[in-house]
Structure formats: structure tokens, C-alpha cells
Amino acid sequence: MTRYSKQTRILIAVDCIIFGFDGQQMKLLLIKRSFEPEQGKWSLMGGFVQPGESFENAAARVLKQLTGLGDVYMEQLFAFSKPNRDPMERTASIAFFSLIDIHQYEQQISHEYHAEWVPIKKMPALIFDHREMIELAKEKLRYKAALHPILFELLPEKFTLPQLQNLYEGIYDATIDKRNFSRKILSTGLLMKQKDKEKQSSKRGAYYYKLDKRKYISKFNTFLNFVPNPNKLK
């Protein structure tokens, strides 16, 4: 088979944006880059797509190799293709993002490449256009959180209202009034109050809740009207 003539070759890479929640705050999984350019600086997990490899397979391979994480659902975000985004060589990157419960993957994390969970609010300087990737992923995440019960995937089966509020504040980067949040979230009728309490965070303890997934599927518009605009949560 002949190749297309007079065409310049470019490299294709993948970058993985992994958001995590530890019950208190939103974090991002970063590594220290192991080669030039920008060796030793903070970076998303990334690597080049190999011949015969799909973007999805490449992202899964890179994530497994650099962090030890496997079987993590990732969704394709966007293609970043500015000609000068990589100073070494013309490289286009396909970004993927995912959202996981940190506690479910703590034992899997490999520290060979200095993989580390970093609070989003304390994010260090990153190489290339990785911060731009993260900001776009945050926008996509906020949109998906308003349409799907994706945020509840981050929580244990039983969770407290303070945990849920911390999660929403992290996703929407907003301070939410505690009383209004509790009142509005309970008014949706989608949470089932449990008999037991979580008592590690306070002496009085906070009741556990569960998401009624059947009601959520049939009445997701209740949440759709609740979360799109952080200003409405106050």
C-alpha cells in the first residue's frame, strides 16, 4: 500500500486526567515527568499512541504503566493540536478524563513515577497545555454531573450530607450554604435516610444516606434543576 504523498507526519499522544474524591476534597492524579523536555516537572499521565493501537487502548496502557491503575473508565474529552504545544516535536494529544473514588484505588497506585494525588485548589505548575486540558475536563464534568448520577459513583454506598456537599463544592468550585444545601437536596426525595450515623467527624455524628437510583432514573430532572448553576445552590 502506498502512502499519501507530500504529507508531513505528526505524533499522536494521549493524556489522562484522573479526578478523585477522598471524602473531603477533589484531587487530581499527577506524576513527575521522567524525560525531556520538562523533565522532573508535574504532568498528567501521557504517552504516545503505538501502531495498531486505538486511542482508548493507548490511554488505558499509559495509565496502567505510569500509575498501576487498571480497569478505570475513561471518556474521551478533546483533541489538543496547537502546532507548538510540544517544543520537542509536532504532537497532537487526545485527552481522556475519569472520576474515581480515591479510597477504592489506594492500594493500586504505583509510586515508580511519583504518582501523587494533588488537591485541585493547590495544583502546581504543569507542563505544556495540561492545565488547559484540566479546565476543559472540569467544565465537562460539571455538565455531566447535572445530567447523570456520576457524582454518587465517587461516594461509598452510604454517605453523609457533609460528604455530598464537599463533593459538590469541589466539582463546582463554589461555597454552598449548609442549611440550604441540606434542605434542597432532601427536598428532591431522591435520598434515603439510614438509621446509623458517621461519628468520626463530629461528636453528634451525621446520618448516613443512600441514593434511590430508581427514583433518580425516573426523576433526574429534579437534580438537573438543582446543580447546573452553583449560584443557585446558595
Q: In a few lines, what is going on in this structure?
A:
This protein is of the alpha+beta class and 234 residues long.
Descriptive account of the structure:
It is elongated and about 70 Å long. It is 29% helix and 26% strand. The chain is built from seven helices and ten strands. The termini are far apart. The chain is of the alpha+beta class. The chain folds into two domains: 127 residues, Nucleoside Triphosphate Pyrophosphohydrolase (Alpha-Beta Complex); 85 residues, Orthogonal Bundle (Arc Repressor Mutant, subunit A). A hairpin with a 4-residue loop joins strand 1 and strand 2. The strands form two sheets. Strands 1, 2, 3, 4, 5, 6 and 7 form a seven-stranded mixed sheet that branches. Strands 8-10-9 form a three-stranded antiparallel sheet.
Please describe the topology of this protein.
Elements lengths: L10 E11 L4 E7 L9 E2 L1 E4 L6 H13 L7 E6 L10 E11 H4 L10 E4 L10 H18 L11 E2 H12 L5 H10 L3 E8 L7 E6 L1 H6 L2 H4 L10
Parallel strand pairs: 1-6
Antiparallel strand pairs: 1-2, 1-4, 2-3, 2-7, 5-6, 8-10, 9-10
